Amino acid sequence: MKDNIMLGQYIPSDSVLHRLDPRTKLLSMLTFTICSLLLNNYGGYAIASVFVGSQLLLSRVPLRNLLRGLKPVVLILSFTFVYHLFFTPGTPLWPGSAFKVTEAGIEKGLFVVWRILLLVSLASLLTLTTKPLDLAKALEQLLKPLSRWGVPVEAIALMLVIAVRFIPAIIQEVDRIMLAQRARGYDIIAIKGHKRVFAYLSLVVPLLITTVQRAEQLAMTIDARAYGTGRGRTSYRELRLSRMDYTAGGVTLAYVLLLLYLYLNMTIALD
Amino acid sequence: MKTKELVYAALFAALIAVLGMIPPLPLGFIPVPVTAQTLGVMLAGCFLGRRMGTLSLVVFIILIALGLPVLTGGRGGLALLVGPSSGYIFSWLVAAGFIGWCSEKIWRRVRIWKLIAVNLIFGVLLVNLIGAPVMALITDTPVWTGLIGALAFLPGDMIKAVIAAVITMQLKEISPIEDQAGV
Known about the structure:
The complex is a heterodimer of chains A (271) and B (183). Chain A is mainly α. Chain A contains 9 helices and no strands. In chain A, α3 (42-59) runs parallel beside α5. Chain B is an all-alpha fold and 183 residues long. Chain B is built from 9 helices and no strands. Chain B has helices at 3-19, 37-48, 50-66, 79-82, 86-105, 112-139, 143-150, 154-170, 176-181. In chain B, α3 runs antiparallel to α5 (86-105). Chains A and B meet through α4, α5, α6, α7 and α8 of A and α1, α2, α3, α4 and α6 of B.
């Protein structure tokens, strides 16, 4: 199975987006995502598209990887567009035809698909330009104020690191179990039909047992090293904001305010 | 929070990720293959209980957000948490919590049919009842279209509910719930 899971979808490069602090990128993406839900006119969509498009260019990420990120949603988007085409009330473009396509339907479908593409593209860009553990670090920092309300932020950070670290180990365990089963004349992949269902059992049961054993050992090890509750821990790697981060934050804020302005304008005009 | 709880939740999140990589099982009569990922979600609830099960799904969802390719087919990234399928992913969190809660409730008088029932109600029905409306909301289509699409996943999900119950019964002795029950 995979060997490079630690890198996630990260693509090494030296672009501006790669060098930004992950906190800046995460907050910008979330803010933009929330504002995108308010898009309701061509002006807003145009501005949002300019924003996302310029980010894509700045990142210098190959187009192939961006398109791969969109592949999972193509099927759903196609269905959505076709649905709106046929079922939105309005004036048919070709009266009397079997296809009741309406002008409003085309516009509605276009808007919905467009918005989802914007959201998915920007989110893909974040994961393409940021390493997973850097993003984990950013999440931990941003969630730190929640410690005041009892959210165990340090515990969540530790769980993330353990999970990332042990995915390759458990993958090796799966390979080892499959190999051992095959050596005993029981090839899981070769089994057909309903017997494959019970083949899952002979794989998952030992996998679960070894995971439980590993958990017990790891918990004891962590306690023996006096980790405690995680509060007051120091960090091997620190995040640092640069002037570029403030510039990027400002640009995102400007775009968001512009979108809000257009949205309010449209809302007032409709009253 | 105890260290053991943290470690169990983290390792189970990793386990759910790895289960997503196991080759899917094609059923001949429906177009979608059966993946082992939701089996991991049901196991997290059945085997770990409410608290650790929910925590492991929280960690798993954060792993998706970080961009790790932990979903079936090597997918991951924040795109999936803001896209049409996000409702299903977040419903796993709710499902694991409810399955774990019921599992703890029935643990002293546990029977395999009870576990199957719990997995079917929360692991199959609840997941679709949360996922379909969210997909409908994001794509601006009626809920019934999403529910009809979800029918294709029902046979595979039912099989996984049974498998999860069987596995939990087999490994009942080493479950963390057993530790809590003080048996």
